[in-house]
Design goal:
The structure is a single chain. The protein has 383 residues and is an alpha/beta fold. The chain has two domains: 252 residues, Zn peptidases (Aminopeptidase); 124 residues, Alpha-Beta Plaits, CATH 3.30.70. 34% of the residues lie in helices and 22% in strands. It is built from ten helices and 15 strands. The strands form four sheets. A six-stranded mixed beta sheet has the order 1-2-6-3-7-14, sandwiched between helices. β4 and β5 form a beta hairpin. The two termini are 26 Å apart.
Length: 383
């Protein structure tokens, strides 16, 4: 079987697992464990607190320094209410494009890594290839930190990480950091004709949501040589509150995030938001002592900073021949690896423009280019 056929067979299996972030990924993890076990490759799970999800990592080759991590997330975003032309959990090919949820983001990269496991085992590797699969990346890189901590603590810590997010096999050297917050506003119910006898949580929450929007507008004037958008961005992704149109809302909650090139920018934005929230909280309590504002930081994923001469940069540019400097606005686990002292870059098949969309797809030619990348990596680690 050719490596392309093997990759597509594996991708078919991976796509069939509905690993939407709200679901468990254990069936997929068990399948990968068995795939590796049948090839004599040991793997280790790193589970979440309740055992419903797990990371998985495995090393192929010698127990030696200089290992290269191939990192990918197993979860995907929901398909709910999206107008798909075909079953999102069945890989289908039309006109040279492979359709299915996760084809671009980012099960094709995982399939490529697994499809080359036999070649890696048969090669005379002098440095190991480390497969690292994480959970809950799509909701804030919640799974990867526990696995990264174990990898960073090993006697032979890996020397480079390639995160296979879709970049059309181009090298991406930086990504923004992201932190997100759940804001709960509690008021006091009452008749809407008597607003002074209660506190509308919705009306108070609107003040904070307006602040988020205002800060986002202010950040539009920022400049940056690599990021697009160049400055911090803020969005409100979900709002929930109120009982009826003629009842002062007892509760309103919303989720917002900020994505920043620099951590200091995120610190300043969060500090400003919390200061205004504290004022609103105090004001609510004067009218409804049981009310107030609660802020929960949901995620805090660090950005990936450019390290021009790092092992990861040098390796990826040698494998691809790509010497441009690129940065992306989305967050990934690359920044977490970098924070743990392991240099990282992003490079994987497919385009982010197709990610999260109905009829998500990846071009077959990207699978072919990814296979060439894997072959070059194995050859380099054998030299």
């Amino acid at each position: 079987m050719s490596e392309i056929s093997a990759t597509l067979d594996i991708l078919t299996r991976l796509i069939a697992f509905d690993t939407t972030s709200r679901n468990s990924n254990l069936e997929l993890i068990a399948w990968v464990e068995d795939f590796l076990h049948r090839r004599g490759i040991a793997s280790r799970r790193v589970a979440n607190a309740d055992g419903t999800k797990a990371n998985l990592y495995a090393s192929i080759g010698p127990d030696a320094p200089g290992g290269v991590v191939l990192s990918g997330h197993t979860d995907v975003v929901p398909v709910d209410d999206q107008p798909w032309s075909s079953d999102p959990w069945v890989l289908s090919e039309r006109g040279g494009k492979l359709y299915g949820r996760g084809t671009a983001d980012m099960k094709a990269f995982i399939a490529l890594a697994l499809a080359h496991a036999d070649e890696a085992r048969a090669a005379a590797l002098k440095r190991p290839v480390v497969l690292a699969l994480s959970y809950d990346e799509e909701i804030g890189c919640l799974g990867a930190p526990s696995m990264i901590a174990e990898l960073a603590a090993q006697a032979h810590k890996p020397s480079a990480v390639i995160v296979g997010e879709p970049t059309s096999m181009k090298v991406v050297s930086a990504h923004k950091g992201v932190r997100s917050f759940i804001v709960d506003v509690m008021g006091r119910e009452g008749h809407s004709s008597l607003p002074d006898q209660g506190v509308s949580a919705v009306m108070e929450a609107i003040k904070l949501m307006s602040l988020v929007a205002d800060m986002g507008e202010e950040a539009r004037s920022a400049t940056h040589p690599h990021f697009n958008p160049p400055g911090p961005t803020m969005t409100i992704g979900k709002v929930d509150g109120g009982t009826a149109g003629n009842i002062l809302a007892r509760r309103c909650s919303f989720i917002w995030d900020c994505r920043c090139p620099e951590a200091a920018q995120g610190d300043a934005i969060e500090k400003r938001f919390r200061a205004v929230a504290a004022e609103i909280d105090a004001n609510i309590k004067t009218r409804a002592p049981e009310g107030g504002v609660t802020i929960t930081r949901r995620t805090d994923t660090p950005g990936l900073a450019i390290e021009r001469d790092s092992e990861a940069e040098t390796l990826a540019r040698a494998l691809t021949g790509d010497n441009e400097t690129r940065a992306v606005a989305y967050a990934a686990e690359a920044g977490l690896f970098q924070r743990a002292g392991i240099p990282a870059i992003i490079c994987g098949p497919g385009s982010i423009e197709q990610a999260h969309q109905p009829d998500e797809w990846i071009e077959r030619t990207q699978i072919e280019e990814g296979a060439q990348f894997m072959r070059r990596l194995i050859a380099r680690l054998s030299a």
